[in-house]
Amino acid sequence: MLIVAVVVLAIIAGGGIYYIFHQKKQMDEMTQSFDLEKEMMSDDLNELSLQYEGYKFSVSNDSLVALLSTEQAKVQRLMEELRTVKSTNAKEIARLKKELATLRKIMRNYVVQIDSLNRANEQLKVEKNEAVKKYHQVSSTAANLKKEKEKLTERVTLASKLDATGITVTPINSRGKVAKRIKKMEQFVLNFKISKNVTASVGEKIIYVRIMRPDDDILLKSRGDVFAYEGKEINYSMKKTIEYEGEEVPVTMYWNIEEYLSPGTYRVDIFADGNLIGKKSFTLEQ
């Protein structure tokens, strides 16, 4: 009986030892599995955090950047919890694993939003480039039209400018005869014609004449006799008002010689509407 009891106890003890050894082996294997799972979860969380960090720098939407920062903070909090949880705490590891899956899903949603924004931004860039291109084209067209308008205005201005033709200057003596010697000259008779011009403005026209000596000094009666030309006030020798209707108009003007005249080449410049419309040189002999 004693021997049988000892054998039975030995068998029971052996079975218990085997069961305990087997359970310990299973626990070790489970712990190793949880450790490996923790390591993989840690890698996944670290990758998620880096993705959030990268996306924060790739988007320009402030609201989206704030949301990405919030989600990144959740990932970092979960990483800290995973670091402190024990490998044997299967319930807590399961909870963390579930949260990791949720964070992955949220990340996928943000990736979709960011891709959509990037495509929209690319489309906006294309549209902006097209708009800038069209703006430059319109600006170039407008500039060309402006230049054409300026050229046309210039041509119209030139076309509407009066023209003095057939200019003659005749020195005469006291008897109204042509004088050839300076000492006999009493008057200059200036004759010219304002040509026909249907594009010129009609109405009263003031004709200004400058008679210049050989030394380029102006013959004048008063220093106060001036008119506007090219933004300046310049002296004139004589002036005359005529009525111009677009047809040819003959003009005669007289200069009474009261100053000393030296021999040489003189010049007559004729102005109207702020333009030089004709000039003529003549020579006086002693």
Structural write-up:
By secondary structure, the protein is an alpha+beta fold. The chain has three helices and ten strands. The radius of gyration is 54 Å and the shape is rod-shaped. It starts with a helix and ends with a strand. The model has no long low-confidence stretch (mean pLDDT 83).
In DSSP terms (H or I, runs of 4 or more residues), the helix count works out at 3
Indicate the multimeric state: single chain
Distance between the termini: 178 Å
> How would you spell out the order of helices and strands?
HHHEEEEEEEEEE
How much beta, percentage-wise? 15-25%
Low-confidence stretches: none
Q: Give a count of the beta strands, DSSP E runs of length 2 or more.
A: 10
Q: Mean pLDDT, nearest integer?
A: 83
Quick rundown:
The protein has helices at 2-58, 62-84, 90-160; strands at 164-172, 187-194, 203-212, 218-219, 226-229, 232-235, 238-244, 249-256, 264-272, 275-284. With 286 residues, the protein is of the alpha+beta class. Strands 3, 4, 7, 9 and 10 form a 5-stranded antiparallel β-sheet that branches.
